[in-house]
Specification:
- The complex is a heterodimer.
- By secondary structure, chain A is mainly alpha-helical.
- Chain A has two domains: about 10-65; about 70-135, Winged helix-like DNA-binding domain superfamily/Winged helix DNA-binding domain (Arc Repressor Mutant, subunit A).
- Chain A contains seven helices and no strands.
- The two termini of chain A are about 55 Å apart.
- Chain B is mostly helical.
- Chain B has one domain (about 15-60).
- Chain B has helices at about 5-10, 15-35, 40-60, and strands at about 35, 40.
- The relative contact order of chain B is 0.16.
- Classes of the chains: A mainly alpha, B mainly alpha.
- Chains A and B meet through α1 of A and α1, α2 and α3 of B.
Chain lengths: ~140, ~60
């Protein structure tokens, strides 16, 4: 049976010191944990609202007016596109989405047909590789 | 050497039984501190057990 700690004697003093030390550490950790959980909850609530709003027709239309990178839902594709240079991304989007010809894109960028088409096919292959490697993970 | 001091020294030397005994001794405190927003948080309890082990390692005897 344990004796009650009356704060006297080496054993009791050491145990009280350890308990005080532990309590400070526990309270610090608990405060950090609660703050982290609060932050996480805020994000979760925000995402829930987004999901709810996306279901409504008005918000779905709004979704289409977002910048192109914000419309991408595939995380692997987004990650791959973020690694691409802005000029190359412009060529890819103009060709793939706006259906511009290489001549038109070359005129816009003051570049040659060959340079634009090379950049487009190079980027397309690189994206394909990035997506395949992203799928493997 | 006193009993608690002995336990601490043994735990510092990675004695699993001493660790377990100290953990058992402080379990009620850790459980009480693991109550967050009125409910017991199992994850927090596990983390506080780790905090206890770190305290054992760090405290100077």
């Amino acid at each position: 049976m344990r004796q009650r700690n009356d704060g006297t004697g080496e054993e009791n003093i050491l145990q009280n010191q350890f308990t005080a030390y532990l309590l400070v550490a526990v309270h610090r950790y608990k405060a950090a944990y609660a703050a982290e959980q609060f932050k996480r909850q805020m994000v979760e609530v925000y995402l829930d609202i987004c999901e709810f709003e996306m279901k409504s027709h008005v918000e779905f239309d709004l979704h289409k007016t977002l910048p192109i990178l914000d419309q991408i839902e595939n995380p692997n594709l987004l990650r791959a596109l973020l690694q691409v240079e802005e000029r190359e991304l412009g060529i890819l989007l103009a060709r793939a989405l706006d259906k511009h010809s290489f001549d038109e894109i070359a005129n816009e960028l003051n570049s040659s047909y060959k340079a634009v088409s090379n950049a487009y096919y190079r980027l397309r292959n690189r994206l394909k590789q990035l997506l395949e490697s992203g799928d493997d993970k | 050497m006193s009993n608690f001091k002995n336990l601490l020294v043994r735990a510092k030397e990675n004695d699993a039984a001493a660790y377990a005994e100290i953990l058992n001794m402080y379990k009620p405190l850790l459980i009480k501190e693991s109550i967050l927003n009125g409910s017991f948080d199992e994850d927090l309890y596990q983390e506080l057990c780790i905090v206890l082990l770190k305290c054992i390692r760090k405290i100077q005897v």
